Amino acid sequence: MSQNEAVDAEDPAGTGDTGHREDAEAPGATGTGRPDPGSGIPEHVRSLDPRSLRGLAHPLRIRLLGALREYGPATASQLGARLGESSGATSYHLRQLAEHGFVVDVPELGTARERWWRAGQRGIQSRTKDFTGHPDPAVRGAFDLLLHEVATIHAQELGTWLGTLHEWSDEWRDAGEVSDYSVRLTPELAKEMNQELQQVIEGYRERAVEAGVEGSAPVRVHVHAFPRAEEKPDGPGGRPGSGEGASGPAPGKNP
């Protein structure tokens, strides 16, 4: 099989891409999925700033927000049971998310004993360069944590799908996709490609079916695109696989 061939879901031998796109909705547990019409989640997407980033950048908070976007309103106890955490931990981190506006209280569902929560927006977006070059190391660290946690969640979701293929119908096994591609691009072309992929996905969001439609299921789509360093041959001034030689760092990389 060539590197550019799509891998059939019934013979999952390929790899997926990983990365983060500027101005893209942060994927996975950060919640890019369109909410159900009755979920009460506003349709707008929130842009991260350094303060809100630090309010979100915790593994449990990222998973809590993802669960609320995917499954709808819930209590701290329900979320704790779903995520394998104590209700005390989920309650604390929900309050922290609420302080930064990522989740909101749903008083019409709550009782005197327990509060209900829902996501405050359908997704978030960020500009990578606003955080990777930030002068505050705490902000850079928070952004790094966010990206790595999202990548971890993506790997877990894909692993769950591959581990449960036998439980799905032939139609869904055939519809699933695990593929990777290599193509030489400039940063401008890569960004254009990502934007076009986003438009394709948005088009299918507009065609999404209701939850009760027979044979339907929630579908996760992970979009990753990233550059790789050039490999240079062994010899003076170069290290195998390092992408650096006598001429300096790989194109587009900072020295």
UniProtKB/TrEMBL annotation:
Per UniProt, the ranges with Gly residues bias are 235-246
Residue spans of biased composition, Basic and acidic residues class? 43-52
Q: Which SUPFAM superfamilies match?
A: Winged helix' DNA-binding domain
What Pfam family is a match, any one? HTH_20
Source superkingdom = Bacteria
**InterPro entries, sorted:** ArsR-like_HTH, HTH_ArsR_DNA-bd_dom, WH-like_DNA-bd_sf, WH_DNA-bd_sf
Q: Provide the residue span(s) of the region labelled Disordered.
A: 1-52, 225-255
Location of the HTH arsR-type domain:
51-148
Gene Ontology MF, one: DNA-binding transcription factor activity
Q: What is this protein called?
A: ArsR family transcriptional regulator
Q: Which organism is it from?
A: Streptomyces xinghaiensis
